[in-house]
Amino acid sequence: MNSLSLLLLLLLLLLPLLSLSKPPPPLNPDLLGLIVFKSSLLDPTSSLSSWTQDSDDPCNWAHIKCHPESRRVVEISLSSLGLSGKLSRSLLNLQSLQKLSLSNNNFTGFLIPDLTQLPNLTHIDLSSNGLIGEIPTKFFSQCESLVDVNLAGNKLYGQVPSSIGSCWNLVSFNVSSNHLSGSLPDGVLSLSSLESFDVSKNFIVGEIPDGIGKMTSLRSVDFSGNLMSGGIPDSMWKLWMLSYLNLGSNSFSGRVPDWIGEMKWLRVLDFSENGFDGSIPDSIGDLKFLQSLNFSGNGLVGNLPESMRDCSSLLEADFSRNHLMGELPSWLFELGLQKIFISGNKFSGKVQFSNSLGQSLLELDLSGNEFSGEIPMEIGGLWKLELLNLSANLFSGGIPSSLGELKSLEVVDLSVNRLNGSIPLEIAGAASLQELRLQKNFLNGGIPSQIGNCSSLTSLILSQNKLTGSIPTSLANLTNLETVDLSFNSLQGSLPKNLSNLPHLLSFNISHNNFSGPIPPSNFFNTIPPSSLSGNPGLCGSAVNISCPGVLPKPIVLNPNSSSQNPNTNSGITSANIRHKKIILSISAIVAIGAAALIVLGIITITILNLHARSHSSSPSAAGLAPPSDYSGSPANTDANSGKLVMFSGDKPEFASGAHTILNKESELGRGGFGTVYKTVLPDGRPVAIKKLTVSSLVKSQAEFEREIKKIGKMRHPNLVSLQGYYWTPSLQLLIYEFVSGESLHKVLHENSAAQSLTWNERFDIIVATAKSLAHLHRHNIIHYNLKSSNVLIDGSGEPKVGDYGLARLLPMLDRYVLSNKIQSALGYMAPEFACGTVKITDKCDVYGFGVLLLEVVTGRRPVEYTEDDVVVLCDTVRGLVEGGRAEDCVDGRIGGKFPVDEVVPVVKLGLICTSQVPSNRPEMGEVVKILEMIRCPGQDELSSG
Ligand SMILES: *[C@@H]1O[C@H](CO)[C@@H](O)[C@H](O)[C@H]1NC(C)=O
Ligand SMILES: *[C@@H]1O[C@H](CO)[C@@H](O)[C@H](O)[C@H]1NC(C)=O
Ligand SMILES: *[C@@H]1O[C@H](CO)[C@@H](O)[C@H](O)[C@H]1NC(C)=O
Ligand SMILES: *[C@@H]1O[C@H](CO)[C@@H](O)[C@H](O)[C@H]1NC(C)=O
Ligand SMILES: *[C@@H]1O[C@H](CO)[C@@H](O)[C@H](O)[C@H]1NC(C)=O
Questions:
Q1: Which stretches are transmembrane (predicted)?
Q2: Most Cβ neighbours (<10 Å): which of 123, 620, 702, 890?
């Protein structure tokens, strides 16, 4: 109870006292009742703002009606105002109330037991709220005035109280959609005025009471959606005034009674989802006003009775899921029906429409029967048709082109038949089409490009046919497409690139065809499940983990091993074999740097001969990977179009005539998420490391690529591996790095023998140098994205150099999936925000990686270690030790020499702070450098001047 209602109650208590001293003011109980009622409510839209004590006549308030003479409140209508709160007993103050409607709000709590004792109350509508509890017996104990009670759509439970029988003036009783249980009380049988009786959607059990025949005023009975059982009692035939009878979704059984034909006023008859058996009585034809007939989901047998021809008002007939059989009677289409559902029976024979009939039909579902023969061309006459489901029958022949005349057609399902021929291009005339399902037939020919006109199409399912040809580019115009299944056909060609523009795509299955070429670049296709693409050996791109070969003009490829392979100038790369052998781009391919160099706009452009991939496997079935030509002569190609080489230094490398560089297996240094790295020597004798990007299909346009690369190329820091140049073609990108002799930190820490292990000072130096290099990158707005110990090289003089920075920016978009799965593949370094789609990735992700690397350097342990039955995460282990006051225990046991504990503890703690789960809790790299310099004990600071 809130303070306002308390105040009012106090007021109520005080009033009699006041009246002793003064003549009593005319007290308006309605006003008080309403104010107290309001005080127990939440009124988010201020619908009741006029309800204030300032205006002392509630008859002027909104949603209130008063009696013209007595000025007492007779009606409260607060439907759909978004009100919530409990029903207040103060409503009992409104003694003249006749109608109370609070429907479709959020009232909660219990019913007021004596509400119906308001002497003149006739209508109660509390439907669609959140009321709970049982219906109190008292609720109906004095209810002679009640005419209309609606408690539907609440959470009331328990039984319908038998006291209901005393509401003998009741005309309408509705408790639909609650949790009521038990059986119908005998009390209801005395409601001789009741016209509408709705107890649907509860948990009511038991049989229909035999005395129901006494309720002769009934017009509408809805028992649907309960747990009732038994047969239909014979006394029910007395309810001849019924116009609505719904017994659907119960467990009724027995036969549909013959006397049903005597309920001449029936408009709706629903016996669906029960256990009725036997045949449909002929008397059904006597129901001249019947509009909706639903016998679906029973055990009815026999044919549709011919007498039904007389049901001249019928609009919907649903006989789905019974055991009916025979031919589809032609008169069914003469009745002017809008919906015919007979799916899941045993109807057979041919289906015939005559041209002039069935013109009102909106939905036709004949699926799951044994219809055969052709789909008649006359179907084009059903010009209002919206849904056509003929699936799972034995239809043969072609798809009638007349379907294209059906301008309202939204769903067409002809799947699982024996249709042959091609998909008629006229189908595009069905401009409202949303779903086209033709799977599991024998269709051949191509997908008509006219399908691009069906702009509402959301589902296109053509799988398991014999379709040939390619995907029409017009498909990419269907921006509403969500589900496309073309699997198990013989389609081929490349995928239209602009498929990547389809914004609502949820699934795109093209498996088991002969598609080839690149997979369109987009978020959707980057994360498409492999099973949607499988069985198309020619596809390439990151989604299938096969890089796409270039389509360069006249590439020249040196390939000493190619003699056994077929020349193949197709850009498609046959990769299934590669994938199965888990050899991804096993390179024994060659890049030759041409002898002749051209200077274009101050940039040296030379010819680099195309690097071409072929399978390391010499399996003859790996043909198709073969390079364009055998060429082992001098690579004296001066075609400037074949590639662009840029050296940032502006140097003009001295190329000896005929010199070339071979990137092959022997010169391979290693592989990473972005590509394979080769050591090579430029013609001027300078050693460089060349990284060939393998995610080439993800790389941006040339302009964007160059912009990002030049940004990275500007980085010069003693602890960064410098990028010295690059080579660009649309299909091949090489990054030319300074060559660092030495090993990676990862090797030093984890693959060397204990004897060669690093001292504390060396480790500290590595930590500080790495921190400085990252701080430098961050100052220039470059995020590393891929920090891990294998990307830190220790050069000949022991100086660490961080490599592989900034490359994630080369992806068309910073795709978290790609980042986390392909690039940041090294487990343990990845900041938690990568997994969280909503957190922005900032340079704080590098701080996290740095923290892990710091702990790795101190402990000499991998970020994540797998033991037989456990996964050990380094940060967690260290955190545990530090919290237990044993920080020094985490230092690598192999460490050479002593180490200062006053340095170890703060360094380890710094590492833990850097690996905070929340990015904003991690320090900036610049701060990290400063902290490290403060931690280092005086006299040992060798690097702070860098
Ligand atoms: C009832 O409240 C819930 C949230 O508590 C809200 O989502 C819903 O729309 C409300 N219903 C009505 C009819 O106001
Ligand atoms: C109830 O209605 C009757 C008849 O309309 C009327 O005479 C009587 O005053 C009403 N009772 C109250 C409490 O308003
Ligand atoms: C019962 O009330 C519900 C909710 O207001 C309504 O949808 C339904 O049509 C009512 N039943 C009858 C028979 O009027
Ligand atoms: C017939 O009843 C079933 C189940 O009660 C329902 O799903 C179906 O939509 C109904 N048919 C028609 C035509 O309304
Ligand atoms: C796609 O739609 C555009 C505009 O509606 C049209 O100009 C273009 O021809 C269509 N493309 C195809 C391949 O049908």
A1: 583-609
A2: 890
* Residue after which a domain boundary falls, among 70, 98, 126: 98
Whether 210 maps to a domain, the answer reads no
Q: Which atom of ligand 5 is nearest the CA belonging to 449?
A: 14
> Rounded mean pLDDT of 769-778?
94
pTM: 0.61
Question: pLDDT digit string (tens) for 116-139?
Answer: 989 999 999 999 999 999 999 999
pLDDT in tens, 721-754: 999 888 877 777 788 888 888 888 888 888 876 5
736 within 8 A of 727, measured Cβ to Cβ:
yes
Taking the C-alpha atoms of residue 63 and residue 34, their distance in angstroms, rounded to an integer, is 11
> Does 567 contact ligand 1 (Cβ within 6 A)?
no
Q: Is the dihedral of CA 638, 644, 650, 653 positive or negative?
A: negative
CATH of the domain at 649: 3.30.200.20
pLDDT band at 631 (very low <50, low <70, confident <90, very high): very low
Amino acid at 346: K
The 8 Å CB, 24+ separation contacts for 217-222 are 217/171, 217/192, 217/193, 217/241, 218/194, 218/242, 219/195, 219/243, 219/244, 219/265, 220/195, 220/196, 220/244, 220/245, 221/197, 221/245, 221/246, 222/176, 222/197, 222/198, 222/246
Distance 82 CA to ligand 1 centre (A): 7
- Residue 829 maps to a domain: yes
Q: Assess whether 697 and 770 both reside in one domain.
A: no
Q: Are residues 785 and 732 in the same domain?
A: no
3-state SS, residue 752: coil
Q: Using CA atoms, how far apart are residues 225 and 200, in angstroms rounded to an integer?
A: 6
Query: Do residue 820 and residue 731 come from a single domain?
Result: no
Q: Is the pLDDT score of 789 beyond 70?
A: yes
Ligand 4 pocket test, pick from 271, 296, 298, 314 with the greatest ligand atom count within 8 Å of Cβ, gives: 296
Confidence at residue 21, expressed as pLDDT on a 0 to 100 scale: 45
747 is annotated as contributing to ligand binding: no
133 lines ligand 2 (CB under 6 A): no
Question: Per DSSP, what are the bridge partners of residue 326?
Answer: 347
Measured distance CA(855)–CA(913) in Å, rounded: 11
pLDDT tens digits along 504-548: 999 999 999 999 999 988 888 888 998 999 999 899 887 888 877
Tokens 């010295």, residue located? 724
**Residue that has been written with the tokens 């004296």 in this structure:** 636
Sequence-distant (6+) residues with CB within 8 A of 603 are 644, 646
Above 70 in pLDDT, residue 583? no
Rounded distance between C-alpha atoms, residue 633 and residue 626, angstroms? 18
Rounded to an integer, what distance in angstroms lies between the CA atom of residue 868 and that of residue 402? 67
Burial label for 880, CB within 10 Å (0-12, 13-18, 19+), is exposed
Q: Which strands sit side by side in the sheet containing 227-230, from one edge to the other?
A: 205-206, 227-230, 251-255, 275-279, 299-302, 323-327, 346-349, 370-374, 394-397, 418-419
Lowest-confidence pick of 107-116, 211-220, 667-676, 776-785: 667-676
Going by pLDDT thresholds of 50, 70 and 90, the confidence category of residue 68 is very high
Q: Tell me, in angstroms, the distance from the centre of ligand 2 to residue 354's CA.
A: 65
What six digits make up the tokens of 586?
Answer: 């096993």
Atom of ligand 3 nearest to the CA of 153: 4
What was the pLDDT predicted at 671? 73
How far apart are alpha carbons 337 and 360 in whole angstroms? 6
Query: For the residues 16-20, what does the mean pLDDT come to?
Result: 39
